[in-house]
């Protein structure tokens, strides 16, 4: 069984419910755009373009999607407005497939990586610590031994928060005093985790984008120090973004990608927003797979992103 094969049907219900606002936003507009029309023409495509852009799919990605639909219309000569939903569904799924984004539904920890080290980046307030806590919980539920490293040493609150999650989930947290060298915390965490046979290590880092050079140097130093303990660490650099901020999340993603190599994305707070389209756009623009999506407060509301299910929920 894959690592997160723990939640079946309930997971899809959470996804449907979490994307409700985005769906209503897209669909009410789409219904108005095709009202009284039988075929997809230029006017329908113009309206569709506007709908996708205002749903935070982003301009460049929207243009790609429209272009694909135009090619289809040209090829098939006649495309009815009834088919538009299915066409949108298949084109967006195809786009996410090209960016190597989910299906992670049967994701398993690679055998060779022991412990499997995840370095978590993202600005404060995006749900970074919560995401770490929920990940730790799900790994633990799957029978894995987890260690957390509190390497965001610039905010006392960050260390406290991660400790609260550690206590709640029942996993050890390695920390030092506030203002300590983040690389030193990462080093301690990996040493401790390795000595105690941990399966997974999740390291929190400070998210100060206004000081990009400092951030870049710090992340490089953390990575270099990790390699002394686990030569191929980190195995994953996970960027956490707040989906409810729409285009602002795009900008953060771009800035983080400029300072470090991002390998996966977690997009949080999708349940309270109509901006769920941002998942499609960010994945397409960054060419980095969306791995997790946050759909609520509960421990299980952080899900592995599954593109087919996501698109299905969006266009149901």
Automatic annotation (TrEMBL):
Gene3D superfamilies membership: P-loop containing nucleotide triphosphate hydrolases, Signal recognition particle SRP54, nucleotide-binding domain
Enzyme nomenclature, EC number: 3.6.5.4
InterPro entries: AAA+_ATPase, P-loop_NTPase, Signal_recog_particl_SRP54_hlx, SR_rcpt_FtsY, SRP/SRP_N, SRP54_GTPase_dom, SRP54_N_sf
Reactions mediated catalytically: GTP + H2O = GDP + phosphate + H(+)
Keyword Nucleotide-binding: yes
Gene Ontology molecular function, alphabetical: GTP binding; GTPase activity; signal recognition particle binding
Main location: membrane
Protein residues bound to GTP: 122-129, 204-208, 268-271
Domain SRP54-type proteins GTP-binding residue range list: 289-302
Protein keywords: Cell membrane, Cytoplasm, GTP-binding, Hydrolase, Membrane, Nucleotide-binding, Receptor
Domain of life per record: Bacteria
Record-linked SUPFAM superfamilies: Domain of the SRP/SRP receptor G-proteins (SSF47364), P-loop containing nucleoside triphosphate hydrolases (SSF52540)
Signal peptide residue numbers: none
Membrane topology summary: Peripheral membrane protein
Enzymatic class: hydrolase
Pfam families from the UniProt entry: SRP54, SRP54_N
Family per record: Belongs to the GTP-binding SRP family. FtsY subfamily.
The protein's assembly and partners: Part of the signal recognition particle protein translocation system, which is composed of SRP and FtsY.
NCBIfam families: ftsY
Function statement: Involved in targeting and insertion of nascent membrane proteins into the cytoplasmic membrane. Acts as a receptor for the complex formed by the signal recognition particle (SRP) and the ribosome-nascent chain (RNC).
Protein name from the UniProt record: Signal recognition particle receptor FtsY
């Amino acid at each position: 069984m894959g690592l997160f094969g723990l939640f079946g049907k309930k997971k899809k219900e959470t996804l449907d419910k979490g994307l409700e606002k985005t769906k209503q936003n897209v669909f009410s507009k789409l219904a108005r755009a095709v009202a009284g029309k039988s075929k997809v023409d230029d006017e329908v495509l113009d309206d569709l373009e506007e709908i996708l852009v205002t749903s935070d799919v982003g301009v460049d990605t929207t243009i790609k999607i429209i272009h694909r639909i135009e090619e289809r219309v040209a090829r098939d000569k006649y495309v009815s407005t009834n088919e538009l939903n299915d066409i949108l569904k298949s084109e967006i799924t195809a786009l996410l497939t090209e960016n190597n984004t989910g299906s992670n539904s049967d994701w398993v920890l690679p055998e060779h990586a022991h412990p499997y080290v995840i370095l978590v980046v993202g600005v404060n307030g995006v749900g970074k610590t919560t995401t770490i806590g929920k990940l730790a919980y799900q790994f633990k539920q799957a029978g894995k031994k987890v260690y957390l490293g509190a390497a965001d040493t610039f905010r006392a609150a960050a260390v406290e928060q991660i400790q609260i999650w550690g206590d709640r989930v029942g996993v050890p947290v390695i920390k030092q005093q506030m203002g300590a060298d983040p690389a030193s915390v990462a080093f301690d965490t990996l040493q401790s985790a390795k000595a105690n046979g941990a399966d997974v290590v999740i390291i929190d880092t400070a998210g100060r984008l206004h000081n990009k050079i400092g951030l870049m140097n710090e992340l490089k130093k953390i990575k270099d120090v990790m390699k002394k303990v686990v030569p191929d660490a980190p195995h994953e650099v996970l960027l956490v973004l707040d989906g409810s901020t729409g285009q602002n999340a795009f900008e953060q993603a771009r800035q983080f990608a400029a300072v470090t190599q991002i390998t996966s994305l977690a997009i949080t707070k999708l349940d309270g927003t109509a901006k769920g389209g941002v998942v499609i756009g960010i994945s397409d623009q960054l060419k980095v797979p969306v791995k997790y999506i946050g759909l609520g407060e509960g421990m299980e509301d952080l899900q592995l992103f599954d593109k087919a299910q996501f698109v299905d929920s969006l266009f149901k």
